[in-house]
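Exercise: predict the fold of this chain.
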Amino acid sequence: MKKLLLSASLSLFAAACGAGDAFQSPGLSAVRLTGQAGTSADACIRTRAYSNWARGKMYEECVNAFRTHYDDQGGASWWQNEYWGKTMLCFAGAAMYTQDASLKTWIREKTHAFLKEFQKPNGYLSTYAKEDFLRKNPENPDAKTHWCFNIWGQKYTLWALVDIHRATGDKEALDGAVKLLDHLIAQLKRLNLTIDRTGSWNGVSSMSILRPVLELHRLTGKAEYRALADEIVAAMDREPYNPGSLIHDAFRKEMIHTWYPEPGFWAKAYETQSCLEGLVDYYRLTGRTRVLDAVLAYYGHLEREEMNPMKSAGHFDHFWHAADQLNGMTELCDVTHWIRLNRELLLVTGDAKYADRIDEAFHNAFLAGVTRDGKWGAHIVRSHGTRHFWAPPQTGMFHHQCCPDNMMRTYFDFADSIGGLTDDGTLWVALYSDAAAKLPGATLSISGGYPYADTPVVVSVTREKAGKVRFRVPTWSKTFTVNGQARAAEKGWCTVDAPAGASAWTLGFDMSARVVPWTRTHGKRVPPSPGAHSLTDVGAYTVHFMEWYSPEMMGLCRNYPGVQVMRGPLVLAKGRLAGTAKADTFFSFATENGMNGWTAELKPLPAGTGTAGVPRAWSLTMKRGVEERTFPVSDYASLSNIDDPTNWFSLWF
């Protein structure tokens, strides 16, 4: 990889990047989402960072967890300790994104009060009252009993303190982070314990601390932090066929869901992707090719085995052969970290396919799981039904749940993936949602209403010096034009010359409907045993959460495959909000099991015609020989992101 030239003028711009990056991102302070994505992001920021609820009940509840020590009361082992960190990561991101001085002041004041009240003189900072409680039953060789989230929660607190320092420049936040990590390192040494022997899932949850450890190492240069990172990475390559052996096992040929006897317990998607993100950052720092090769190998498994119909990775927070499941379910946290993993790989490798995955995951699985007011979200996003499994408050909380607490960061990750610069000054444009960015020596503006509108995308650039601009050519687009001229892709990109001053290019994509076959056969319904579900039988587990927790879902699980219809990165769906009849939405005609060969054609419907709160609707006509069916459709996310048991939607045709 080329080395970045980190001049003083670029130091803030490249703060989130490292010497191993092919691309530099603009940084949150330099980019703004506009258009549909911007409206959705603004609603979430307004509700979850500026409202009286967010700064009152929501914030105070996660602080109170450090007073009550609910997490380890009576021998319990819960995860209330993740919520302060997640909440403050979002607040810090909002401060960087909006550059609001009053928000920065509020964050500093709350952080100072938090550290003063809860951080012990030795640096310990956790909701667990028992400081040395890092795993359950340490003498029991059955690692499944090591159910403990002490270090997992400290990871989020550490990360938040680092980002608060970055957002506000606050030294107390940085000092608090240093004290926290110094304590953890000394504690592990005192207990003669390595971090992979703590937490849950053979250390996978604890080892996800790798990313904030590396972030703090960059800020402080402390050798002890690099040593801890080295230890974590070594542990991931030490014991074959262990859930924590992510580096070693990544090169296995068998599918992930066959690695463990109970994939419904061991093969955790959220925690594993968190570790993979840390490994990419470790490669960024060290240049160790085996580490990146392992992440790419693991990613290959995910592409082949775990892509679900909603365009995220995993099945209900596990790697359970999601590509084989008709009754798709994805945890919103998994979508958040799938996007983060793809963003890291985009920056490090420069491979355009990772931007394709970000584009698809954001506009489908992610936006489907965010309520329209931005206040709450889904725990499980479904492929079809009446509504998603909206996040219930967790672990004794009323205003927190793992998935909604992650939502705001995803908007920021998406915004910071729009485009940026390479080390030779080439400006790259990876995503085409309406946005604006200020870069060193250049400005960038994207307009056109992508991916909902029929109008072309217009990219406007102003450069101080002449250079080049590189556009992503989406893999789904059969044609790509620049100012009306067909252009070929080179490794997923098209490069044009840009003079000094202002320039604009009109980009054309093939946005016609395309039929995507789903030829899987194993996602059949398996009735669960009353009162229980199996960690091995994915069919029973799926029905349990598709039907039992939402009674109106009874009878809606699919028993046979279908096809998907896509427009650009959008998964299209039938549904009540588009005006599709319920009978036409579910099981209306066969498109698989020998019934392939269907074509699809879209015609735009006038705004407001048979639609309710969706940005765009179309009339979809599907043909196969003399057979023809026509439905009103819209994008899957807009038809499904309401918590209404009388709704209906399906992305299957």
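Check your answer against the key: Residues 171-190 form the longest helix (20 residues).
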